[in-house]
Design a protein that fits this description.
The chain has two domains: about 240 residues, TIM Barrel, CATH 3.20.20; about 100 residues, D-serine dehydratase-like domain (Lyase, Ornithine Decarboxylase, Chain A, domain 1, Beta Barrel), CATH 2.40.37. The chain starts with a helix and ends in a 10-residue tail after the last strand. By secondary structure, it is of the alpha/beta class. It has twelve helices and 17 strands. The protein is globular, with a radius of gyration of 22 Å.
Length: about 400
């Protein structure tokens, strides 16, 4: 039975639009991430999953421990659901959520906030000043992992933390460690230019060569600088973890002695953007199906919906990929539409009104912002249906 037949058979009793997770592919992808991590634990990036039940299933597997959340309200919700060891990957200015965190000693003991400035410490202090018996706030300092070759005249990488040098990181770390009401417990550095840039873009060998050269230079610089930062901060506080990497750089980051854990999540679902990475292996695990509702002419079908554009720099690589049946492509004049999407190709002639077309989203967790449920497939059957964050009425961003 082909994958197309298997997916259609498993979901024949359901009406699309619908989203599925192939459990065999999910487990295989999880095993590959663990293999690539070389014995270091993987902290699961929740923004790439956005389903509590899927998060529980992944955390039950060997090699995974802890969550990397994207907002503090999300982290509080997850902590209240029984999850622990939650690192919020981005700074927060949500004053109400900060007060809730400080008012609950158990939650404050399991949730860690991200900081990269003294100004953020000031905001947290002010927001929690009137909380009776406020619990100490755990904090992690975010490091700028960008590469600045040519004496700093060039900057390559995401614009995240302003803390680039060991001295700059140590200064904020010292402030956090010295202030009453805070506990400095970790460091984080996300090397977006390595983990988030494909080094083997299909059909673009020259770009792939240039990206690999950039990543080698950046990785060598970062490994040396990160080690120096960790050594400097360890003079200030006893660290519980040093987080780094992402799905695209697991083995490279894990090889650094100073790194204790890898943050990753996209590799579990393996969206289409990761088709352009040499070291990322696995199988597509998350897909969505749209129904054929029109046949405008020879070699054309129209499906309902489809405009599920991924975040990031605008481009065709942010579109979902028509996946099964193979051979379908977008009309360049329309692409993926808000309420309908025409698809071209010889295979369109084999589709009837009511049939379905399967897509892969460009990124991982953003798919779950479109669907309330994920249908879990084992073999050619749906074994369970679980809610996404959206299905539970939670839209944190």
């Amino acid at each position: 039975m082909t994958d197309l037949d298997r997916l259609n058979h498993a979901t024949a009793h359901l009406d699309p639009p619908l989203a599925v997770v192939d459990l065999a592919a999910l487990r295989y992808n999880a095993t590959e991430l663990v293999r690539r991590a070389g014995g270091k634990r993987i902290r699961v990036a929740t923004k790439s999953v956005r389903s509590r039940e899927v998060l529980r299933a992944v955390l039950a597997l060997e090699g995974f421990r802890g969550l990397l959340a994207f907002t503090l309200p999300e982290a509080l919700w997850l902590a209240g659901s029984g999850f622990d060891d939650i690192l919020v990957g981005y700074p927060t200015v949500d004053r109400a959520a900060l007060r809730r965190l400080a008012a609950d000693a158990r939650t404050a003991d399991t949730v860690t906030l991200m900081i990269d400035s003294v100004e953020q410490l000031d905001l947290i202090e002010k927001a929690t000043a009137d909380v009776p018996d406020a619990a100490p706030i755990r904090v992690c300092v975010d490091i700028d992992a960008s590469w600045r070759p040519l004496g700093g005249r060039v900057r390559i990488g995401a614009r995240r933390s302003p803390l680039h040098s060991p001295a700059a990181v140590a200064a904020v770390a010292r402030e956090a460690a010295d202030r009453h009401g805070f506990r400095l417990v970790g460091l984080m550095a996300y090397e977006a230019q390595i983990a988030g840039v494909g080094d083997a873009p299909p059909g673009r060998p020259a770009r792939g060569f240039a990206v690999r050269a950039m990543q080698r230079g950046s990785a060598a610089e970062l490994a040396e600088r990160r080690a120096a930062i960790v050594a400097a901060v360890k003079e200030i506080a006893q660290l519980e973890f040093v987080n780094g990497g992402g799905t695209g750089s697991v083995e490279r980051t894990a090889a650094e002695e100073s790194v204790t854990e890898i943050g990753a999540g996209s590799g579990l679902f393996l969206p289409r953007l990761f088709d352009g990475y040499r070291m990322v292996t696995g199988r597509p695990a998350a897909m969505f199906a749209l129904p054929v509702v029109r046949r405008p002419g020879l070699g054309v079908v129209t499906v309902l919906g489809g405009g599920y554009i991924a975040s990031g720099p605008p481009g065709t690589d942010r579109l979902p990929q028509p996946y099964l049946p193979a051979g379908l492509r977008y009309d360049p004049q329309e692409a993926a539409g808000e309420v309908q999407t025409p698809l071209l190709g010889d295979d369109a002639n084999n589709l009837a009104v009511g049939d379905r077309v399967w897509f892969r989203h460009a990124k991982a967790g953003e798919l779950c912002e479109r669907f309330a449920d994920l249908h879990l497939i084992q073999g050619d059957s749906v074994t369970a249906t679980v809610p996404t964050y959206r299905g539970e009425g939670r839209t944190f961003l």
